[in-house]
Specification:
P-loop_NTPase; 46% helix; globular; Rossmann fold; alpha/beta; five-stranded parallel β-sheet
């Protein structure tokens, strides 16, 4: 049976754009960390918007909506409702800060008044055909009602995407220093790490810095993902599988990975039709997207620093 909702955990620079392309090809809209393509934007019908508004809006807000009298305003206001629901679930799932949302009191910025039980309603009442993508979720701070729902309903489908942490670190160094060809604004990355790394003279010094600054987010993302990696109710997929021949992998592993995730989500997508859409060099965060790129830039000192600080992660995720 097709899963109406999917949550993907994908640590920073682990190939999140690849798993986003996969979920879009499987028919899901995207909410969360990546910037979705036009085809990946949530498609919510007027009837579904009306149902969401009745569930989650304050009765006075709901009474003011009139889909027939002013459909354009109805869509605008329910678009805002979808954003506010996203903020609620960022908080309830204890996700890393997205869109500069205050995760302690995001409701203070809500344009629309929500119903009294908006913060306690189950996840299955959110918009259908949506894939939520986060870099990390804090298991200990996560809403226990969600965990109970996930356990008893076997839904939403959970997927973990991962990558060799050494390649993720190199990709992060390029991204934070602006070497991926884009200028981004998201805090604290662009305010703190961007200027620091851009001011360093070469890649060697950037990697050295990232291996010695304890606030670099790589360790936190991957350590938060260890439990998901070992959980039997989570589908695992790797960048090294999804990258395929264009990223230095194989088409056979790419097809097998697509088939595995599609089956987990309960879709009947044809893997052969999907794989050709995955490796997208136009992605906002794309740099090189190659397997094993760390070997070209790591020095002996880098390897020693990495093993001392992150070596347990290469063991845990099978990259030793």
């Amino acid at each position: 049976m097709r899963q109406e909702r999917v949550i993907v955990v994908s640590p920073r620079k682990s190939g999140t754009h690849l798993v986003q392309k996969l979920m879009t090809a499987l028919g899901y809209g995207i909410y969360g960390e990546p910037v979705p393509p036009e085809s990946g934007r949530a498609a919510v019908s007027l009837r579904e918007r009306l149902e969401l508004a009745e569930r989650f809006l304050h009765p006075d807000e709901f009474a003011a909506l009139d889909v027939r009298e002013d459909t354009k305003e109805f869509i605008r206001r329910t678009d805002r409702l979808l954003i506010q629901l996203g903020w609620i679930w960022q908080t309830r799932l204890a996700a890393r800060n997205l869109s500069n949302v205050d995760l302690i009191r995001p409701e203070i910025d809500f344009e629309l008044r929500m119903s009294e039980d908006a913060w306690t309603r189950p996840f299955w009442q959110t918009a259908p055909r949506l894939c939520w993508i986060f870099h990390s979720l804090d298991i200990w701070r996560m809403d226990q009602k969600f965990l109970n729902e996930w356990t008893t309903r076997q839904a939403p489908a959970m997927v973990l995407n991962h990558r060799d942490p050494r390649d993720a670190l190199v990709s992060m160094a390029n991204f934070f220093s602006g070497k991926s060809g884009i200028t981004f604004r998201r805090f604290p990355e662009s305010a703190v790490f961007g200027p620091i790394l851009a001011n360093l003279p070469d890649m060697e010094s950037r990697i050295t810095y990232m291996l010695t600054d304890p606030t670099i987010p790589l360790l936190h993302d991957y350590e938060a993902a260890v439990s998901w990696y070992h959980h039997p109710q989570v589908c695992k997929v790797a960048f090294e599988e999804l990258a395929g021949p264009e990223g230095g992998g194989s088409r056979a592993r790419q097809l097998a990975a697509v088939e595995r995730v599609a089956g987990w989500a309960g879709t009947d997508a044809d893997p052969e039709a999907v794989v050709g859409e995955l490796f997208d060099r136009r992605s906002f965060t794309f740099h090189k997207g190659r397997i094993g790129a760390w070997r070209e830039v790591f020095t002996a000192r880098h390897s020693a620093l990495f093993d001392a600080r992150f070596g347990h992660l290469t063991d845990m995720f099978g990259y030793a």
